[in-house]
Amino acid sequence: MPAVPTPSYITADEVKAQSKIAALIALQNPDINSMIETAEDQIDAYVGPQPHHPEDDNLDRVFPRTVDYERTNDGDDRDTAVMPYKVMRATLRQVEFLYRNWWPTRATAEMPTNKAITDQDIGGDGGYSVSYAHGGVDFSAATLCDDSKALLEGFRSRWAGLSLSHPDDR
Fold it and tell me: What is the pTM of this model?
């Protein structure tokens, strides 16, 4: 089994410095790293493939992309890869989401999902039914919290596979 990539979108110390969830801050760094690794997997699945920055060694992750480099007053330093601010913040929000919705029951619970609901019905007899947007089929979007999705707007890959057929094959 391949090794899980080292967290690179945000560090455990950065999570502790930026989060307002006291119990999350109190966790040991290896526990926070476990949630960061999961959050990064989910973000990568959501944004899809991107051209990776040639100077970054963590090729198992999507970010930093070729367009994510340091910009200086003297010009561009394209050799220095940087993590986009919104990706770092989206990772923090996803770690907080995982902590609140999965971490306490991680040994027995599946990963939490966050699907947009279009219709909900609670009957008088206690029956319950729900309809999800788009049939709830986009699993990569369903695993991210709304705050992360909002921050990652514009980062999603627009690549799509093409299927070609010969015009004479009818």
Answer: 0.76
